[in-house]
Amino acid sequence: MTDEKKQLVLPGVLTVKELAGLMDIPVTTVIRQLLGSGVLATINDNLDFETAAVVADDLGFTATLEQSESELSADTNQYISDAEGEPRAPIVTVMGHVDHGKTSLLDYIRKTKVVEGESGGITQHMGAYQVDYKGRRITFLDTPGHEAFSTIRAQGAKVTDVAILVVAADDGIKPQTIEAIELARAAGVPLVVAITKIDKPEANVMRVEQELAAHNIVTEKWGGKDVVIGVSGKTGQGVDELLELVLLTADLQELKAPVEGPGEGVIIESKHDPKVGALATLLVQRGTLRVGDSFVAGNHFGKIKAMEDFTGKRIKQAGPSQPVRVTGFTAAPSAGERLMTVASDKVAHEIIAKLNKRATTRQFSARTSDLTRLTSQIRLARLHHINIVLKADVQGSLEAIKQQLDKIKTDKGQIRIVAEGLGNITESDVMSAAGENGFVVGFKVAVTPSARRTAKKDDIKILTYDIIYELTDDLTRILLDSIGPEKIETTVGRATVLKIFRDARSEKIVGMKVISGKVQRGNIVRFFDENKELVGEGEVKLIKRVAEEVTEANAGDDFGFQITTHAKITEGNVAEFIRVDYKKAGLK
After folding, report:
1. Is 455 helix (H, G, I), strand (E, B) or coil?
2. Residue 272 annotated as lining a ligand binding site
3. Which of 134, 260, 375, 528 has a CA that sits 20 to 30 A from residue 360's CA?
4. 45 marked as part of a ligand binding site
5. Is 198 within any annotated ligand binding site?
6. Would you kindly state where each structural domain of the chain is located, as residue ranges?
7. Does the annotation place 98 within a ligand binding site?
8. 89-254 CATH choice from 3.30.200.20, 3.40.50.1970, 3.10.310.10, 3.40.50.300
9. Distances in Å between the alpha carbon of 413 and those of 325, 406, 417, 474?
10. Check: CATH 1.20.1560.10 for 381-483?
């Protein structure tokens, strides 16, 4: 019965020395174990959790990741649960193919259904606004469709309660339509289908319904449960029925949110205004935002200097599902980042310091982990060259990166660009990388949703950067680590076999006279016969002089050597002792 492994709690990133200390094991043992796994590291090198956990497991420990502080709360006050809160307005995103009538539909709704008395007051464009239907409010996201939907969702923020899928009656299902369907399903957001442009002579609603059925959206008329509404952004036909359906779909979710407590919301869009500085549009999700509140948003903080509703009217507070424009940011936040109000500027500073520390650790850990896995894949594939598909934002960046990559080469391999281009990373880029047994590298570009899905399905790595030297540093590391450390052998001594004291299958005790050099434990030993033919090799485990254990054997004396080897050694054989060193591969 084997002993249970000891439990070990590790942070996301730690040095080799720190890992050895936590296990109470010599640093040299840890370095040797890393080397056996193909990782050449020094005492002060950082290890990500996955690498450290593998080493710990090999050395008799079960490692678990240290739990970072739970989600940093914006305030010590706790919200009541959403279920115990008050009913809130549903938040709706309109998605679909370009030119399928999204803008016309939203314009008609905004012009005819905006909260009474406010229609004429809209003096600015905001990424969200509210309409009134039968005394109930509905919040619409008026952003670039599913691009914003996927960007916000990528940050881990769930904002949308109902998605309206627009499909033109005269055009049918298109690639962006399919992508919108997949995005909504992946997010678990209920879909309401609006077949637009039904007033056009060439409209063919039946054909659209058939195409929808092919994507598992089956109308009641076709025996399914999905409700599809025909609408016209030009005449307003079907718009009331569409809004009715949106509210019915929302009611099934029983949408509620606490009104009391610190304000919390999600950034929808942001920009820098020369007059007021950074400002952002956000949707309040719970609690109440108030002018004068200190807040944290992403990795930034600030104080709400002013708030405007979607009509441009100054307001002093805003509650759940309400879209507002806020000024008072120290820097423009990103879409999808969460804003949380806090007790004071001091608390905001403390939270940001903790968040930045955690973010740095997570980024390093994730990046190191990605590179380690990628290097292992390349090493297993026994590739001599690293193949990449390179995408950049502009031609100047592309040329600069290519010049730098041309310098990254070794005697055994180099970085090869198998395809290149400008613009975002697409599905075809991922497929090109897969065909060349490579991966994709992007500089200041985004990754399309379809590219991410294909990369995940085919296990193709995508690396993106905003700084050129980080890109070149990582690719240099991948190339050198995939080659592995260079093994250097140095002959340190010679001896003659005098007598075999023990001749077990895998272990021998051999008496030898050292005739030159100095032999130490851990040396490799090779035995040769009288014809200088290699008999076999092994490793020196123990050295004794008479009955005393010693650390080394010097020329001119007789010693007993305990050696692990399968070789058939005989008296008179000559032994050659080798010290093995490892040197990290370098560039030419």
Report:
1. helix
2. no
3. 375
4. no
5. yes
6. 6-65, 89-254, 381-483, 486-583
7. yes
8. 3.40.50.300
9. 54, 12, 13, 16
10. no
Q: Are 195 and 225 in contact (CB under 8 A)?
A: no
Angle (CA) 451 453 457, round 5°: 115
| DSSP assignments along 209-256, one per residue | HHHHHTTT--BGGGTSSB-EEE--TTT-TTHHHHHHHHHHHHHTTT-E
- 142: annotated binding-site residue? yes
Token pair, residue 83, equals 């279920």
509 assigned to a ligand binding site:
no
The CATH code of domain 486-583 reads: 2.40.30.10
215 is in an annotated binding site: no
Q: Is 17 exposed, middle or buried (0-12, 13-18, 19+ CB in 10 A)?
A: middle
143 is in an annotated binding site: yes
User: Residues, the chain, total?
Assistant: 588
Please state the three-class secondary structure of 268-301 as a single string. EEEEEECCCEEEEEEEEEECEEECCCEEEECCEE
| Spatial distance between the Cα atoms of 495 and 381, rounded to a whole number of angstroms | 41
- Tell me if 493 sits within 8 A of 425, measured CB to CB: no
Q: Known binder of ligand: residue 100? A: yes
pLDDT in tens, the chain (588 residues): 345 678 888 876 778 888 988 888 888 888 888 877 666 677 877 777 777 888 888 888 888 876 543 344 444 345 566 767 899 999 998 888 878 888 888 888 888 876 544 444 443 457 788 999 989 999 998 755 545 555 565 444 578 899 899 999 998 898 888 878 877 777 778 899 999 999 888 989 889 988 998 888 888 777 778 888 999 988 999 999 999 999 999 999 999 999 988 899 988 888 888 888 888 899 999 999 999 999 988 777 889 999 999 888 999 999 999 999 999 988 888 777 889 898 888 887 777 776 665 554 444 444 545 555 555 555 544 556 788 899 998 888 888 888 888 887 777 777 888 889 888 898 889 988 887 778 899 998 888 878 888 888 888 888 888 888 888 888 887 777 766 666 788 999 999 999 999 988 889 999 999 999 999 998 999 999 999 999 999 999 999 998 899 999 999 999 999 999 988 999 999 999 999 886 665 565
Residue 101 counted as an annotated binding residue: yes
Concatenated DSSP letters for 92-106?
A: EEEEE-TTSSHHHHH
> HEC profile for 326-392?
EEEECCCCCCCCEEEEECCHHHHHHHHHHHHHHHHHHHHHHHHHHHHHHHHHHHHCCCCCEEEEEEE
Q: Where are the alpha helices (DSSP H) in 84-135?
A: 102-113
Confirm whether residue 144 is marked as ligand binding. Answer: yes
**Domains 89-254 and 381-483 in one fold:** yes
